[in-house]
Amino acid sequence: MQAFLIFAIGGFVAQLVDGSLGMAYGVTSTTILLTAGLTPALASASVHLAELGTSVASGLSHWKFGNVDWKVVLTLGVPGAVGAFLGATALSSISTEAAEPWMSTILLALGIYVLLRFAIRPLRRRQLTGVSPKLLAPLGLVAGFVDATGGGGWGPVATPTLLSTGRVEPRKVVGSVDTSEFLIAAAASLGFLTSLSHQQLSWSTVGALLVGGVIAAPLAAYLVRIVPMRLIGVGAGGLIVLTNARTLIKNFDLPAPSPTVIYAAIVVAWLAALAYTVRVILAERRELDGVDEQSAEAVVR
After folding, report:
1. What's the pLDDT band for 96 if we cut at 50, 70, 90?
2. Torsion of CA 108, 111, 112, 115, to 10 degrees
3. Domain spans of the chain, in order of start
4. Which stretch of 55-59, 125-129, 239-243 has the lowest confidence by average pLDDT?
């Protein structure tokens, strides 16, 4: 019972982060399961089976709050499902360790770009023209494969890439990526159930992750609806930078105290960017309120 509660809390936290920023459910949940002693394949399989429920709950919640672009969902999700199935069936024989540093470097660069873009030069409504299928389809294929083989990665690959284009509203990027994740979870689960017939899945672990994630989904969808797009972008960018910096530090095995110094610098810079963004948002709202008051006075006169 204690293990069930721990995994349920882990699923809740993972879905709250994922539903708010469009990433990190798989990364967070898989980390918990690996720490608990599951093999990489079983951990990834358990997470994807749980995502069959959490992604439905998250998708419905985002749809209710108007956070979903169905064109993005289908164009990104269908190739993603193909990549996820291939990744799941290949996990037992293909190692992604060699590619991990390169992928983390790319994601780190995207995270820095997203953070700076939203903190310093936010998107304008006139720029939100949509993303070409020529980008969405290959992006989905790669993100799906990485997600299945790494126990997570759909959000960290897809979300920053779409945010960096500046052509889709951030809350709809988050909502669409989260909604399309059902297709990836279904395809990956099918691949794992086919290839892991000789290994024992823990359905209580899957259930715990599912319960926690389903409870968190509506709250996460509501938060992404009311939180300003700039704040979401800065939050997502900082999370991407911190996560992938950790991966690179582990791969290069940097000696102490270098990792601590790097983590501290990233956190301080991230908090400073968040504080600056909040300050700018409040200033813009005060300015908008002032304009509205002047307009109201002009009408009265």
Report:
1. very low
2. -160
3. 2-300
4. 125-129
The neighbour count for residue 100, using CB atoms within 10 Å, is 17
**C-alpha–C-alpha distance, residues 145 and 285, integer Å:** 42
Residue 195 CA neighbour count, 13 Å, CB half: 21
Rounded distance between C-alpha atoms, residue 17 and residue 9, angstroms:
12
Claim: this prediction has a pTM higher than 0.85: no
Cα separation, 239 vs 7, in Å, equals 22
Instruction: Describe the crossing of helices 25-35 and 203-226 by its angle, rounded to 10 degrees.
Output: 150
229 with 122: CB under 8 angstroms? yes
| Residue 62 DSSP symbol | H
Percent of the chain with pLDDT over 90: 6
Locate 217 and state its tokens: 């989904």
With cut-offs at 50, 70 and 90, classify the pLDDT of residue 269: very high
CA distances from residue 249 to 111, 261, 293 in whole angstroms, order as listed: 16, 11, 52
Q: Kindly compute the dihedral angle of the four CA atoms of residues 245, 135, 170, 184, in this order, to the nearest 10 degrees.
A: -80
CA distance 86 to 139: 15
Whether 50 contacts 211, CB under 8 Å? no
- Round to the nearest angstrom and report the end-to-end CA distance of the chain: 68
Asked if 156 contacts 243 with a C-beta cutoff of 8 angstroms, the reply is: yes
